[in-house]
Design a protein that fits this description.
The protein has 217 residues and is α/β, with parallel strands linked by helices. It has a single domain, classed as TIM Barrel (Alpha-Beta Barrel), CATH 3.20.20. It has eleven helices and eight strands. It has an eight-stranded parallel beta barrel, surrounded by seven helices. Helix 4 crosses helix 5 and helix 6 packs parallel to helix 8. The relative contact order is 0.13. The chain binds erythose-4-phosphate. The site of erythose-4-phosphate has 11 residues, from helix 7. Keywords: Cytoplasm, Pentose shunt, Schiff base, Transferase. One of its GO terms (biological process) is carbohydrate metabolic process. Its main location: cytoplasm. Pathway: Carbohydrate degradation; pentose phosphate pathway; D-glyceraldehyde 3-phosphate and beta-D-fructose 6-phosphate from D-ribose 5-phosphate and D-xylulose 5-phosphate (non-oxidative stage): step 2/3.
């Protein structure tokens, strides 16, 4: 299972990278704005900084909503750095652009996916990754994890290569449940990764080991 961090915050990305378990980064326009990164030049420069911190895939989202605009933007993003994956919204133009990029060998991440039908379309269009947003489904009292399980079943039925990237992950239980279901990737905040470290018996056990070591020395 790949671990992506869902942020544009460089220090969080550095911390996850330093832990040695990070496989990539996902961003979106809201996450960029949260870090105060605005304007095309600054956004492109920020993607480069992120690519220089991590070794894996970095999803960079287009903001165009028409096919021609998506192609223009996506080609510029892909040319920016070999680690960039072009992130496209699940709308008709996004599916068309996904097929275009897939035919050209440019990697894609189809985002804002909330149903099995949308995930099926993304796979048919040759998406590298599909991003079902589990947290946002949970927010409206719909089982986000069930969507991951249904997409897993459909993709396995037909051996689609598209990787399921569980997005809008909010906490450690989302990560663990996605792993049980067989999601290929998860993307979440730093806390969803570092939270996996924690167990009170680890802390008390270590404290006792260190105490006993001191007694013997
Ligand atoms: C996916 O790539 C999105 O950036 C993200 O996971 C959205 O998560 P949110 O629902 O916490 O905003």
């Amino acid at each position: 299972m790949k671990f992506f961090i869902d942020t544009a915050n460089l220090s969080d990305i550095e911390e996850a990278q330093a832990l040695g378990v990070l496989d990539g980064v996902t961003t979106n326009p809201s996450l960029m704005a949260k870090e105060g990164i605005t304007g095309e030049t600054n956004i492109l420069a920020h993607y480069k900084k992120i690519c220089n911190i991590v070794e894996g895939d970095v999803s960079a989202e287009v903001i165009s909503t028409d096919f021609e605009g998506m192609v223009k933007e996506g080609e510029a993003l892909a040319a920016l750095h070999p680690q960039i994956v072009v992130k496209l919204p699940m709308i008709a133009a996004g599916v068309k652009a996904c097929k275009y990029f897939s035919d050209k060998g440019i990697r894609t991440n189809v985002t804002l996916v909330f149903s099995v039908g949308q995930a099926l379309l993304a796979a048919k269009a040759g998406a590298t990754y599909v991003s079902p947003f589990i947290g946002r489904l949970d927010d409206i009292s719909t089982d986000g994890l069930n969507l991951i399980a249904e997409i897993r079943q459909v993709y396995d039925n037909y051996a689609f290569d598209t990787q399921i990237l569980a997005a809008s992950v909010r906490h450690t239980m989302h990560v663990i449940d996605c792993a049980k279901i067989g999601s290929d990737v998860m993307t979440g905040p730093l806390s969803s990764i570092t939270g996996l470290l924690k167990h009170p018996l680890t802390d008390s056990g270590l404290a006792k080991f260190l105490e006993d070591y001191k007694k013997g020395n």
